[in-house]
Amino acid sequence: MTEKPIALDLPPVDPLPEATARYFQICEEKLGLVPNVLRAHAFDIDKLDAFTALYNTLMLAPSGLSKLEREMIAVVVSSANRCWYCQVAHGAAVRALSGDPALGEAMVMNYRVADLSPRQRAMLDFAVKVTQASATIEEPDRQALRDHGFSDRDIWDIANVAAFFNMSNRVASATGMVPNPEYHSQAR
């Protein structure tokens, strides 16, 4: 891909360290691309490593939340923040993980129209509240999640995934990050 991943002039370290080059190769093999968010961070390997470590532990490590649920949170938060990059990239992930292109579209456009379980709806409502009014979250908000079967650890994970994407959305939007074109046609 020749297009710059962001609007800033921050070329990647050249050559990439061996571990980073290997990580990018794994992305290419598993995803068919190196996500532009990683390419954007490649000007500072320490920041790239910190970003990927946090992303991987929140999104891929064992959790009471499924990978699909975590991706749903990513999309709903990104939709609330109007983050083009993350709506496209994580919308593709929801489509792929769910096998349901309409679900991926609903998450991007308006999750409230999606055919969701009451548990998923409660999780996404909480993630939106973290995004739009986190200072107003009180015990009844957490208890509503418990009432839908979420453990306190799950609530921690919901809050952390939502917070991570709030941070990522702001960086992506502020730097003009563009989604990889491949995402648009995936899992349709």
Count of β-strands: 0
User: Helical content, roughly?
Assistant: 55-70%
**In sequence order, what are the helices and strands, one letter per element?**
HHHHHHHHH
CATH topology of the largest domain: AhpD-like
Number of helices: 9
CATH architecture of the largest domain: Up-down Bundle
- Domain module tally: 2
Low-confidence stretches: none
Percent strand equals under 5%
Give the CA-CA distance, first to last residue: 22 Å
CATH superfamily of the largest domain: AhpD-like
Largest beta sheet, briefly?
none
Could you say which structural class the secondary elements and strand pairing correspond to?
Answer: mainly alpha
Q: Give the rounded overall mean pLDDT.
A: 96
Task: Please tell me what the overall shape is.
Answer: globular
Overall radius of gyration: 17 Å
Task: Name the features.
Single alpha-helices involved in coiled-coils or other helix-helix interfaces, 0% strand, single chain, AhpD-like, 9 helices, 2 domains, mainly alpha, 188 residues, 65% helix
